[in-house]
Amino acid sequence: MTDDRYLKRTVVKHEIQSQFLNETRKLRIYLPPGYNELLSYPVVYCQDGEEFFNFGRIATFANQLILDEDIEPFIIVGVEVNVKVRTQEYAPFGNRHEAYVACFTEEIIPYVEQNYPVRRTAEDRILAGDSLGGSVSLHIALKRKDMFSKIITLSGAFYIPSQEIIASESDLSFLSLYMVVGLQERDYQTDTGIYDFVDLNRRTKELLEKRGAKVVYFEKDGSHIWGFWQKELPDALRYFLL
Asked: Matching InterPro entries, A to Z (predicted)?
């Protein structure tokens, strides 16, 4: 039975107008127990923000980690996405990818930092994403090495174009990644084809490590669904926030 303390969550909703995407973008912002504007907090930025909150139960897990495991309180920012254009924004070959990266780094991050006491160093910003959300998190970090160094990827969709971008890098020693993929993801149908996600993640891990990135990597029984990723979220958060 879930402790009622975990369910008393403070989640604030915002909308920002993006000049890069020429539309509004919704944010969900989780504030930890005992939130105090005079303090400063590490921050986790989640792609597919609505799903991280609804299906990943990230706010409930955050309360549990903070209240019961003495993890330093942190803020979570979920960035929502229109699933109809998700691939175009998240995949490096998408026609909205550059605009989304610019929106994320030049509009969303400054908005959050102007309105909430989040820390502004690469060590205190964590990027998190599932599937293509994991991929775009890595691409954002590669484009803005000054801003990001920690990434959680849940079954990252690291297609060949992503691997080629990683291979073009020479030094990724600034990066630290927590990667997990399900062993039942070897024949997964996406909107751009059928992929072996285990192979994609193994190859990506190798490319990253050869370039100096620190990678914690797991292959576990699981499918390409939130039922699998939800169970992996607490350990992923612990890794970077303990």
From this structure: AB_hydrolase_fold (IPR029058), Esterase-like (IPR000801), Mycobacterial_A85_antigen (IPR050583)
Helix (H) or strand (E) holding 49: helix 49-54
- 67: domain CATH number? 3.40.50.1820
Task: Tell me the sheet residues that pair with 128.
Answer: 46, 152
CB 93 within 8 A of CB 135: no
Provide φ and ψ at 78, rounded to 5°: -100, 120
Q: How many domains does the chain have?
A: 1
Q: Which residues pair with 177 in a beta bridge?
A: 151, 215
Where do runs of H (alpha helix) occur along the chain? 4-7, 49-54, 58-68, 86-90, 97-103, 109-115, 132-143, 160-167, 197-210, 226-241
| Residue range(s) defining the domain that contains residue 106 | 4-241
pLDDT for 177-235, tens place per residue? Answer: 999 999 999 999 999 899 999 999 999 999 999 999 999 999 999 999 999 999 999 99
